[in-house]
Amino acid sequence: VEKTLKKFGKIDILVNNAGAGSPPKPFIETTEDEWDRDISINLKGMLNCTKAVLPHMIERKRGKIINISSMGGKNGGPNSTVYCAAKAAEINFTKGLAIEVAPLGIIVNSVAPGVGLTNFVKNAPPGALDGFIEKIPAGRTTTPEDIAGAVAYFASDISSDVVGQTLSVDGGLT
Q1: Tens digit of pLDDT for each residue in 13-38?
Q2: pLDDT by residue (tens digit) across 54-98?
């Protein structure tokens, strides 16, 4: 944060994009270490980055915070309970923070991507995704470009009255 402020003099936009999940498996097999790891990566990173930039945005009375969540945070899903719980917490963090800081000129929103060819999907047990892509109305997985378009929208001035929202970018799945 300090290097960015030194070089650019301000921080206009923060995109909280850290995300990870343990390999898919039944919740009953989840260890406490896996729980702690997934919650820490998905939520603590968001906490630390947001707390680091928020004072600068408050001082300027301007800023955009865009959190990357997941459709799993909206719908849940089998064999990924901890990941879905963390992503649901991100969505509610977005809403709560948005209400708190909107009067200060800071806009907070979230993007909830659908199924992409991430390591989480690539590491799914054999057969776990059979037939799943066919259930997506758009008939394809979500691409990084799809997500980038939603982030660009939230980062732009045309979304200045969109506050505390989570935009699903999932081919119509949710």
Answers
A1: 999 998 888 888 899 999 999 999 99
A2: 999 999 999 999 999 999 999 988 888 999 999 999 999 999 999
* Diameter of the chain measured on Cα atoms: 51
First to last CA, the chain: 35
- Integer angstrom CA distances of residue 148 from 14, 123, 151: 14, 24, 5
- Give the separation between CA 100 and CA 94, rounded to whole angstroms: 10
Q: In sequence order, what are the residues at sequence separation of 6 or more whose Cβ sits closer than 8 angstroms to the Cβ of residue 146?
A: 113, 169
- pLDDT single digits (tens) 95-139: 999 999 999 999 999 999 998 766 666 666 677 666 777 788 988
* 153 in active site: no
The token pair at 36 is 């702690």
User: Phi/psi class of residue 9: alpha, beta or left (left: φ > 0; alpha: ψ in -120 to 50)?
Assistant: left
Q: Span 13-169: which CATH code? A: 3.40.50.720
* In the chain, domain spans: 13-169
Q: For position 8, what pLDDT does the model report?
A: 95
Of 70, 83, 97, 113, the active-site residue reads: 83
CA–CA distance, 24 with 73 (Å, rounded to integer): 15
